[in-house]
Amino acid sequence: MYDEDDLLPISALSQLVYCERRCALIHIERLWADNRFTADGHRLHDRSHDQQAETRGDVRSVRGLRVRSLRLGIWGQADVVEFRRLPSDEGAPSGCELEGLPGRWQPFPVEHKRGHEKPDISDEAQLCAQALCLEEMLGVTVPEGAIFYHEPRRRHDVVFAPGLRDQTEALAARLHELIRGGVTPPARYERKCRSCSLLDVCLPKTAGQRRSAQQYLAASLASLNEEGGE
Q1: Which CATH number among 3.40.1000, 2.30.29, 3.40.50, 3.90.320 corresponds to the domain 4-188?
Q2: What is the C-alpha separation between 134 and 191, in angstroms, rounded?
Q3: pTM over 0.90, yes/no
Q4: Strands 8-9 and 74-85, how do they pair?
Q5: Helix 122-138 vs helix 11-18: angle between axes, to the nearest 10 degrees?
Q6: Around 131, how many Cα atoms within 13 Å sit in the side-chain half-sphere?
Q7: How far, in Å, CA of 107 to CA of 202, rounded?
Q8: Could you tell me the pLDDT band of residue 41, with boundaries at 50, 70 and 90?
């Protein structure tokens, strides 16, 4: 079990899947740069969190819900959690109660993403982490959720199968290991680097194998200062 002060952001899990160096640059070296993709993503999440909770029929939608897991040491803010009213004739009690509303409700997290489905599990792991948090907080099972991709305007349903759960928990453990170690992995240029907002900070084609981005930039500035003093 982790303390509240040790919790790391759920969003870092998707960064970790995408690139461990990018994750370290953001969460160890505290470096960040926006491009049009990340800026659009920020605006999208701000809009989804600004709206008020609403109930339509048997679905209660709560936006910007803060979630956390002390077991995994992660926290975050779910874009939307749909609480779906369960039939009252079910045998064993399931779901959770909602203040001021009758019946029991099944949580169903929905994550909003600006682009398309990705070839890796970065989005699915981020959503699964939210589900694991909800399970720990509410004492219920969350079997599935969805990712809404805004470019195709389509929901991608995600089943939180044992394999995905195991991968998500392993990512949370690796995230804590990476941050605790405090060492940024060496740069390695790949095709995906071209669309990364940290390309000009990471410098994957030129950064030294054993130097952090901050060290590389400091050395470059020192060299420039020496040339200017000649």
Answers
A1: 3.90.320
A2: 36
A3: no
A4: parallel
A5: 150
A6: 28
A7: 39
A8: very low
The residues spanned by each domain of the chain are 4-188
Q: Is the CB of residue 66 less than 8 Å from the CB of residue 74? A: no
Encode the chain in three state secondary structure: CCCHHHCEECHHHHHHHHCHHHHHHHHCCCCCCCCHHHHHHHHHHHHHHHCCCEEECCEEEEEEEEEEECCCCEEEEEEEEEEEECCCCCCCCCCEEECCEEEEEEEEEEEEECCCCCCCCHHHHHHHHHHHHHHHHHCCCCCEEEEEECCCCEEEEEECCHHHHHHHHHHHHHHHHHHHHCCCCCCCCCHHHHHCCCHHHHCCCCCCCCCCHHHHHHHHHHHHHHHHHC
Residues 6+ apart with CB under 8 A from 194: none
Is residue 180 within 8 Å of 15, Cβ to Cβ? no
Q: Which residue has the tokens 């200062």?
A: 225
> Which of 93, 79, 70, 102 lies closest to 1, judged by CA?
70
pLDDT in tens, 71-119: 999 999 999 999 999 987 655 567 999 998 999 999 999 999 988 898 8
Instruction: Give CA–CA dist 51/46, Å, rounded.
Output: 9
For residue 202, the one-letter residue type is C
First to last CA, the chain: 57
**What pLDDT is stored for residue 200 in this prediction?**
86
pLDDT digits (tens, 9 = 90+) for 159-184: 999 999 999 999 999 999 999 999 99
